[in-house]
Predict the 3D structure of the following.
Amino acid sequence: MPKLSTRLQRFRTGSPLSFRLLAWILLFSSAFTLVASALQIYSDYRKDLSQIDNRMQVVESGYASSLARSLWALDQKLLQTQMEGILSLPDVVHLRLRIEPDSELVMGEIPRDAKTTSHSFSLVHQGDEMFKLGELTVTADLDRVYDELKRKVGVMFLDLDNFKHINDTLGHDAGDNLLIEAARRISSCLRGTSTVARLGGDEFLVILPGLTGPEASSQVAERILKTFSPPYILNGQEVFVTTSIGIAIFPTDSDNSGTLLQHADAAMYQAKHKGKSSFAHFAPEMTEVSHERLKMESSMRRALELKEFELYFQPIVNTDSGTLCSVEALLRWNNPAMGMVMPDRFIPLAEETGLITPIGEWVLLEACRAAMGWKEATGKDIGISVNVSPRQFRDPGFTEAVMHALATSGLAPEQLELEITERLILDNSIETAEILRQLDKAGIRLSVDDFGTGYSALSYLKSYPFDTLKIDKSFVQDVMKEPEDASLVRAIINMAHSLGLRVIAEGVEEEAQTHFLKKEGCDFSQGYFYSRPLPAADFDAWLANNHRV
C-alpha cells in the first residue's frame, strides 16, 4: 500500500475542494473547527481506503487455502471459478496468479491511467512438507474513492438577521446565548458528514459533502429556515430571529475554494435583499453585484471624510394655502467615480455595515444647521424633517446624537421632526418605546413615514407619541384614477385625525391631486407639484423667490 504521504498527495490532487477549502476556512474559523472539518473529510477518505484494505485481507484469509487446494489438485475449472468470485468483489479489477515454476493466470483488466492499489499473498500446500505453489496479486481500482471525494459539495454562508439589535438591546450575554442556540439549531438540520463552523460575529459556514444535486442543498436550507421559526427565549423574553442563507456548489460554481466562499457570500446578500429569512443559490450575475457592493462599501467608508455626501431639500406645504411649513432633508451621495448615488442603492448597504450611524449623525447635524440658516435668512421658523433608519434608531447613542445636533446648531427641539418607518414601529420592544418617549419628552416631533406600505398596526399609533402620519406616494399618485386608492387615502386621513395626528400626503405631482387632498382635509402636502428635491444653494434661491414662505 502507498505511504501516508503518497495518499495525502493523491488526496490533495484528486480533490480540489478538500485541503484548499479548509485552508480558506482557517482564515475565518477557529483552529478547532478547522481540525474537525479536515478530519471529517479525510476520515471519509481513510474509511473508504480501509474498506478496500479489509477486502484484500478477506480475500487472503478466505481464499488462500481453497485456491491452494485447487492448485495442488490441478483443478483448473474450480480455480477459475474461485478467481471469478474474487474478481466480482467491489473495486477489484485485476488478478494475476503466478504459478510455480513459470506459469501465470491473468483475469480482469486495469483501466488506463487508473489509480490502483495491490495486495499479494502466497499460496502454499501444507503436508509433510510445505510447498509454495504460487502467488496471487489482487489489484483494486481507487477511482471510485476519488470520485466520491469529487462529488458535489455545498457551501452555505449563513448570517443571522438583526443580530446586532439583540446584542445592543439585551446585552452581549444574551447575544452569546443566541449564537449557541442558533448553532445548535443549524447542527440539528445536518447529517453526520456535514460540518458547521462559526466564522465570527453572527456568521456561520456549513459544508455539505457528497451532494447529489443543488436540490439537496435547498432541502437543507429549508430545514434550517424552518428550525429558526420558533422564538428564542433570552432573558425571559421571546425573541424572533431569522437567518439569510447563500449557497454555492463545488465544482459547479467554482473549483477554487476562495472563490467558492465569495460566491456563497454574494448569494447570502441576495437572500437578504429578497426580504431575509430566505436562501439563494449563487448565479453568475451575482459576481458583478458583489464586486459593485465591495467597491461601494470601500468608497462609502471614505465619503464622509471626503465630503461627498450632500443634503437635498424638498418643501412640505400647507395643503389649503400652499404656504411653506417645513422641509424634508434627503441624503444624496455625489461620488466622483459613480456619480450621483441615490439612497435606495447605498442606504441598505450602510445599514448592513453599520456606516449608517456616523452618516445619520452627519445628516442630523447638517439638517439642523440648515434650518437655523433659513431662520436667519427669512426671520421665520422653518421646521426640518429627517429620516431615521431602523439600525440608526437602535444605536445606543442615537438619542444623544439627536440632542447633540440640536445643541450644536441651536435649533429648537420642536422644529425637528424625525420620520420613523412602519417596520421599526412594529418592533414592539421596551427599548423602542423608551427611545420614542425620551424624544417626545424633549419636544422633538415624531412622524410615521410611508404609512400603508408595511403591516400597519393601528394600535401602535395610539400607544406611541407620534405627531404626524405621512401617506405613502404609492396611494396618492392614483387617487384621481383608482376609486380604491381614493377611498383608502380618505380613510387614512379620517383615522389619523381621530387619533389627533396631522397628515402629510407624499408624492403630489398634479393639481387635481391637491384639490382632492384639500377636499378630504389633508393637512400638508409634499411632491414635485410644489418642488423637486433641491441642493442647498438651489433651495436657498427657492426660498428667496417663493412668496408663500
Summary: Residues 152-283 form a domain with the Alpha-Beta Plaits fold (CATH 3.30.70.270). The chain has a mean pLDDT of 83. The chain has three domains: 48-146, 152-283, 297-542.
